[in-house]
């Protein structure tokens, strides 16, 4: 579709990303092709149709997994966020910041920037830090969630968040629901309905997924899911472009009591007592992650299907046809009454803060889908001798230069990224021949793609082993994943790690999963690899029976 610069912006936000709908500029947020835009906006019901519409970018993300590159500089994301936080306090109190970080990205690159983003003039009432995507990481031993939480607390301390009261630190999976009922209870106990709540975090931290989960929970007003559309969710960085919001329910004593009764009743159920549809959905979640939880609703019956997606008939337009409106007339679209929202406190989803020095910024949308893990990560462990090299696709490389004994290298990355083992003598030749090709997979596109891709640059690393069952450090290869190193006690290793020029390489000590090398099968004869081993999934709020 073509733009029409003569048509003024609509003043109506896209229900998927929050950008203002417009047909003036195809490279700007909120674009709808001019002919579709006119069909939507004409007539007395035009405003209602626009409010139910999504922009071209959200349409393509939701239905085709395609991402349109927009002319939206990172600074503009920050301006939207900063302007929202600097609004005068409503209800006599500043907002609560719900900062979401991806535990795979620890140390979080954006958290230390938070004080500068807020500035001294932002009246923040509190900060609640939430570590997301814990479902993707296998349990490497008893107490692994406690160790992850300690790392989260340490990251908050290192970020220097002085002057902002830290309310709590939680671990959740916005995707599988793990930890969300506990998060909602914590918010309702400590924050109640005292003021607005802002979801903050870096791109790809899962804010929009959490927003959608909270929208269909006891945290929002009971009618909100029928009125407010879900945010667009995509692995592409920077999906949310402006503010999205839903009204927070007031957690009165009666509501808290009814909610606790529901949670108690659900905790007595076993998997055998679930309906066939609930079992099917639970098994779907188990394939997604190691930690699973159900998010229920106390004050309204849940939808018949727990998996809700965009309804094509309710969206703005099809790819190759003129807009078609559903049998449900736009005039019947539900709206909040004045009394429902006049004193409401709101939960806002904000644009993600762009991560600098991140390898994802160098990748195409197809490559991003391969690099970002969406299913439970199965660790891959290799035993290397000095003089051997490990490649993680063509995005990272670790050379074992010096050491007396073999050491174990466990890769924690998307299951779709290949790991290749080479020797120091032929590693450069392997990279030159196979980067951009199927063997190393990412980047993809052959020699032409690699001409524009930054070269790998080295960093020397010295480590001292702790023992054969406990790792000494993680070598984090930007956002492509990391390699956990386990070595004999007191064994000194000299390593050289590579990442693409302009991306961050981090040595994480202590490692995030110190006992990860124990999650492995038997050694594959004649190779450096061990067979992979996938631990079972854990369901959070169901009664455990004797059988697994």
Automatic annotation (TrEMBL):
GO terms for molecular function: GTP binding. Keywords: Coiled coil. It comes from the Eukaryota. Residues 253-280 form a coiled coil. Transmembrane segments: none annotated. It holds the Pfam family MMR_HSR1. This is NOA1 protein. The lineage of its organism: Eukaryota, Metazoa, Chordata, Craniata, Vertebrata. The gene is Noa1.
């Amino acid at each position: 579709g073509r733009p029409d610069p003569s048509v003024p912006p609509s003043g109506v936000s896209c229900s998927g990303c929050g950008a203002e709908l417009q047909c003036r500029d195809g490279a700007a947020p909120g674009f709808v092709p001019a002919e579709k835009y006119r069909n939507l906006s004409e007539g007395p019901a035009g405003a209602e149709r626009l409010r139910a519409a999504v922009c071209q970018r959200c349409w393509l993300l939701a239905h085709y997994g395609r991402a349109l590159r927009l002319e939206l500089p990172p600074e503009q994301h920050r301006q939207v966020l900063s302007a929202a936080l600097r609004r005068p306090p409503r209800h006599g109190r500043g907002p609560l910041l719900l900062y979401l970080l991806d535990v795979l990205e620890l140390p979080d690159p954006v958290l230390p920037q938070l004080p500068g983003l807020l500035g001294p003039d932002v009246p923040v009432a509190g900060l609640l830090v939430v570590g997301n995507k814990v479902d993707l990481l296998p349990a490497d031993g008893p107490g692994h969630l406690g160790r992850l939480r300690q790392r989260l607390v340490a990251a908050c301390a290192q970020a220097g968040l002085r002057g902002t009261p830290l309310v709590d630190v939680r671990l959740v999976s916005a995707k599988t629901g793990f930890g969300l009922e506990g998060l909602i209870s914590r918010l309702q106990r400590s924050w109640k309905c005292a003021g607005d709540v802002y979801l903050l975090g870096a791109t790809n931290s899962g804010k929009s997924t959490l927003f959608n989960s909270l929208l269909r929970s006891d945290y929002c007003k009971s009618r909100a899911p029928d009125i407010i559309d879900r945010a667009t969710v995509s692995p592409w960085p920077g999906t949310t472009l402006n503010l999205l919001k839903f009204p927070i329910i007031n957690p009165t004593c009666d509501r808290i009591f009814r909610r606790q009764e529901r949670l108690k009743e659900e905790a007595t159920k076993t998997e055998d007592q679930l309906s066939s549809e609930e079992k099917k959905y639970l098994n779907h979640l188990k394939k997604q992650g190691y930690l699973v939880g159900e998010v229920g609703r106390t004050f309204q019956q849940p939808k018949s299907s727990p998996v809700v997606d965009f309804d094509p008939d309710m969206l703005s337009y099809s790819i190759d046809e003129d807009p078609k409106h559903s049998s449900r007339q736009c005039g019947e679209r539900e709206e909040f009454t004045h009394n429902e929202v006049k004193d409401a406190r709101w939960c806002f989803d904000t644009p993600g803060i762009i991560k600098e020095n991140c390898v994802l910024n160098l990748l195409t949308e197809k490559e991003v889908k391969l690099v970002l893990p969406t299913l439970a990560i199965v660790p891959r462990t290799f035993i290397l001798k000095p003089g051997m090299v490990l490649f993680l696709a063509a995005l990272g490389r670790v050379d074992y230069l010096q050491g007396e004994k073999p050491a174990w290298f466990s890769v924690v990355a998307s299951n779709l990224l290949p790991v290749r083992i080479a020797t120091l003598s032929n590693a450069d030749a392997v990279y030159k021949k196979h980067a951009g090709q199927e063997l190393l997979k990412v980047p993809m596109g052959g020699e032409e793609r690699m001409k524009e891709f930054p070269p790998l640059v080295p960093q020397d690393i010295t480590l001292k082993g702790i023992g054969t069952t406990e790792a000494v450090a993680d070598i984090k290869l930007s956002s492509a994943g990391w390699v956990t190193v386990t070595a004999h006690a007191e064994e000194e290793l000299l390593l050289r790690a590579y990442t693409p020029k302009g991306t961050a390489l981090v040595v994480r000590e202590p490692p995030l999963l110190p006992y990860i090398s124990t999650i492995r099968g038997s050694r594959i004869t004649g190779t450096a690899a061990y067979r992979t081993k996938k631990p079972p999934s854990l369901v959070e709020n169901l009664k455990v029976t004797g059988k697994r």
